[in-house]
Amino acid sequence: MPPSYTDDQIVYAVRDGLIIPAQLDRMAQGMIDLVNKTRAAMSIDNYRFDVDAHDEVAHQAAIESIVMLKNDDAILPLNAGPVANPSATPQKIAVIGEFARTPRYQGGGSSHITPTKMTSFLDTLAERGIKADFAPGFTLDLEPADPALESEAVETAKNADVVLMFLGLPEAAESEGFDRDTLDMPAKQIALLEQVAAANQNVVVVLSNGSVVSVAPWAKNAKGILESWLLGQSGGPALADVIFGQVSPSGKLAQSIPLDINDDPSMTNWPGEEGHVDYGEGVFVGYRYYDTYGKAVDYPFGYGLSYATFEIADVTAAKTGANTATVTATVTNTSDVDAAETVQVYVAPGKADVARPKHELKGFTKVFLKAGESKTVTIDLDERAFAYWSEKYNDWHVEAGEYAIEVGVSSRDIADTVAVALDGDGKTQPLTEWSTYGEWEADPFGAKIVAAVAAAGEAGELTKLPDNAMMRMFLNPMPINSLPTLLGEGGKKIAQFMVDEYAKLAK
Predict the structure, then answer these.
(1) What is the pTM of this model?
(2) Nearest to 125 by CA among 243, 225, 224, 209
(3) Could you report the per-residue pLDDT of 208-234, keeping only the tens digit for each?
(4) Do the Cβ atoms of 248 and 340 come closer than 8 Å?
(5) Pick from 150, 229, 147: which is nearest to 196 by CA?
(6) Which of 70, 93, 131, 487 has the most neighbouring CB atoms within 10 Å?
(7) CA-to-CA distance for 365 and 312, rounded, in angstroms?
(8) What interhelical angle do 51-65 and 235-243 show, nearest 10?
């Protein structure tokens, strides 16, 4: 048995006599490598890691994960009063939603861990001396709504200047062990949001979910929306930092938020039939599908608002090798708020031999800028940034030609587009009588032979190929051994001439 083999696009590995998917094999090896990295520290007698330092790492990671989707009327950041600004009058804040008190900070199943500490949003408010009225509003399950909890939440909202509603998916709604059949949050949470919004129009929704949820059906009831995902043990302080303006949100969506679950390209194949599912969408997954086919989405891949504003200018792309390039751009913070922006580089291929997405993210960099500050960023694109996996060559393949380089802040917010012409990797396959006329023209040797056929036709040595658009439509996809179908005996002589000449050139 070889160390690895493929079966219908799944790669398997053989480890200690067991056949397992290679992805799981890589995961297992990664865990082993991680354990090995810690051996030196763990072998020290009475070793203790710095709990607070690790918690601060979790805190910073959580801050940078929060994505602000909406901020109408600049409802965020909130004013916490003397705690943040001694001269300001604090807003009266209502916090509604059990997630604020009982955060869903991690996934289920095998992702469960024991945190060194756990700080909820309500814990953070108490630690920082920020006053807020709290009502749970609902229970963290899929049971029907509790009218008493709903009534309490609405009354709490009526007495506030602004309402922070913590909504999302309870653990029972998503898992690695089953597929979701809806993108919607529990109906009782949406119903409560509608009631609260009717009582107070100043609502900010803070989402807690491991995978994307529909936003469009309820977004009209919220002036602000923060997608916080599952923030980990220090999620409470991170949310408070963003909500009260200690930092500007800088997270970007790692997946598009569709308008409807049926817009997802996998829905034509899911849930499968007779015990199997075809991954029929191929490379057209997520934004690669939505952007290529012009499908409307609620929020595009790479999207994320900030308390600051930015401008991207002076975009250039310079070829650095046969199939490599470097991209530069100047980013300016055009506001009076210190903040970070993520510059995203997408590669858009020209005409290709295979179906390719409209564009693909191939590089990005996050840059922090003081108010009014400008910086030039550089992103290098290696050969893989322009390549696609070729079944024909069983390898990555870069075609020669012009590629568009798009620089922006989401897959649908492109500031500028420049071009770079690449040489291609020169990969070819042997030509035969079964190769199409178009493949002969595209091959370095074949192109010379096609030119020789044309010259011989002009000289009367071979049948002259008709040169018109209609004939091209027939010729290009046709194996050359079919030329006799079009040209009779003359076509047979042309095909034999091409094969003979190729044998001479390809020696």
Answers:
(1) 0.86
(2) 243
(3) 999 999 999 999 999 999 999 999 999
(4) yes
(5) 150
(6) 93
(7) 13
(8) 50
pLDDT in tens, 391-439: 988 999 999 999 999 999 999 999 999 999 999 998 888 999 999 999 9
Residue 355 DSSP SS3 = coil
Task: Dig out the tokens for 290 from the structure.
Answer: 């939505």
Lookup: tokens for 214: 């529909």
Going 256 to 261 to 267 to 273, the CA torsion angle's sign is: positive
Cα gap 411→115, rounded to integer Å: 35
Coil/strand/helix, residue 62:
helix
Antiparallel, parallel or unpaired: β 224-227 and 203-208? parallel
Q: How far apart are CA 99 and CA 186, in angstroms?
A: 13
What is the DSSP track for 281-325? TTT--THHHHHHTT--EEE-TT--B-SS-EEEEEEEEEEEETTEE
Structure tokens at 140: 């963290």
Residue 470, Cβ density class (10 Å: 0-12 exposed, 13-18 middle, ≥19 buried)? exposed
Which ranges in 159-252 belong to alpha helices (H)? 187-199, 235-243
Per residue in 363-375, pLDDT (tens digit) is 999 999 999 999 9
CA 333 to chain centre: 25
- Going by pLDDT thresholds of 50, 70 and 90, the confidence category of residue 2 is very low
